Amino acid sequence: MTKNIVIAGAGPTGLWLAAELRLAGAEVTVLEQRTERDPHSKALTIHPRTIEVLASRGVEQPLLAEGIPIPQGHFAVLDDRLDFALLDTDFPITLALLQARTEELLEDHARDRGADIRRGHRVTGLTEHPGEVRVTVDGPDGGYTIAAAYVVGCDGTRSTVRAAAGIDFPGTSASVYGWLGDVVLTDPPSAGSYSRATADGLLLAVPLPGGLHRLVGHSPDDIRADRPGELTLDELRAKVTAIAGRDFGMHSPAWLSRFSNASRQATRYRRGRVLLAGDAAHMHMPAGGVGLNVGLQDAMNLGWKLGAVVRGEAPDDLLDTYHDERHPVGAELLEHTQAQTALMTAFSPDGRRLRSLLSTLIAEQPAFAKTLAERLSGLSVRYAGAHPLTGTRAPNLKFGDTTLFRLLHAGRPVLLDFRDEPGPAAPGAIVHHGRPLDDRPDWAALDTALIRPDGHVAEVTPSGEPDQHR
Ligand SMILES: Cc1cc2nc3c(=O)[nH]c(=O)nc-3n(C[C@H](O)[C@H](O)[C@H](O)COP(=O)(O)OP(=O)(O)OC[C@H]3O[C@@H](n4cnc5c(N)ncnc54)[C@H](O)[C@@H]3O)c2cc1C
Prior knowledge:
- By secondary structure, the chain is α+β, with helices and mostly antiparallel strands.
- It folds into 3 domains: 4-171 and 264-377, FAD/NAD(P)-binding domain; 177-260, Alpha-Beta Plaits, CATH 3.30.70.2450; 385-470, 3-Layer(aba) Sandwich (Glutaredoxin), CATH 3.40.30.120.
- The chain has helices at residues 12-23, 48-55, 61-66, 99-112, 160-164, 233-244, 291-310, 320-344, 349-364, 366-377, 404-407, 441-444; strands at residues 4-8, 27-32, 45-46, 68-70, 72-73, 82-83, 94-96, 116-119, 122-129, 132-139, 142-148, 150-153, 171-172, 177-185, 194-198, 201-207, 213-218, 250-260, 263-265, 270-271, 274-276, 282-283, 414-417, 430-433, 446-451, 457-462.
- Residues 8-14, 31-34, 42-45, 99, 122-123, 154-156, 160, 180, 259, 278-279, 286, 289-293, 295 line the site of flavin-adenine dinucleotide (FAD).
């Protein structure tokens, strides 16, 4: 039986999954229909939990070196921003980096780890057989079939894998279209990013590398079920001028596009030997800039599990926990992007009052602002568990000689043994003895904590309770 894993799609999700699977010792083939990477970048933002994920494998530095750190996020482009200094993380920033560059760095990382990435190879279908799944591919030299132990559809919102596996993708169709222009501005807004919400629409302007600005927004006439025609520079100019009172001297568009609030989620993230991750599993309005982030975090959850199963070290039903853990995260993603869409299109006087009220709450109620920031940043994701720490993502605990994230670089479970007299080693885990230097009462009350390869807490032994690892 083959132990190869086939990934359809070399977007951010597929590339990170490929690297994770290689780290777990699996053979990986990534099939990507495009011969060249898309030069247009949908995503610009990388959030704190994603930077933590990268740091847990020691590959965050190239992105941190190139990205522009922004110490805040936003909810529905409300005037008062979410202060990321409130977050308990080593990376309290939104990192602005073009998706094309993020993908390039992720692809380098996956290739360095030995992933076989084939461009110009389009997945056309699949059939399941005892012990394997056969994937049909349209490649540069014609059609072929490749056998795999498992196939992961990371092939975006129109996923061929999802359709071939017969997994439903219910949700709501588009009722709002946003517009986007990457343009040169001869008279740009004075400092950093700019936003404005009026009865004529909502506009966000963000500087991009290479002298461009991204202008993105919605106007009242974009609330419609039918897709408008191609966006032109003249239309963009008219919409921006209606909202901002000027066009910022826009010219030379590098990309003009539209996007919608169609929101859908796969009913199952797993069917037999087929799994889904990233946009193939969930689609939504790009509000708050989170889709790429959630895709990478899907891949982080799935990678070590799939690796353990193909190595024969875990039963196949471990893969069911991928659906159980990540489907609720996808559902929450749809919920908060839909809520933001309602606010971003609240053009009426009453709607603008609602925006103003919520913005004031963000400014004046730190606990409210922190809750929103934790959701946006990905730090609040918690999987099931009895103890308050179980299922949470462990922060980067500091020890004298190392940190938790450094201990996670190998992609193996980490047993933190805080006792003065350490217990025996746990099979398969990296064991670290010693108390963290951090002043954290919840962690100080533990004897041991077992951390999963994806950085979430698997189990803990409170001080004085019988050791689960003996
Ligand atoms: C306007 C806009 C702005 C956004 N801004 C942000 C942001 O700031 N931050 C953020 O986190 N997210 C943002 N997003 C969302 C983000 O771009 C996506 O969530 C992200 O690209 C999903 O990655 P993915 O790898 O799952 O899917 P994709 O990026 O869609 O990649 C799928 C890949 O699969 C390939 N493929 C498709 N079908 C096949 C096939 N049959 N065979 C082989 N290959 C196939 C495609 O060519 C593609 O390369 C934005 C989206 C939009 C539209």
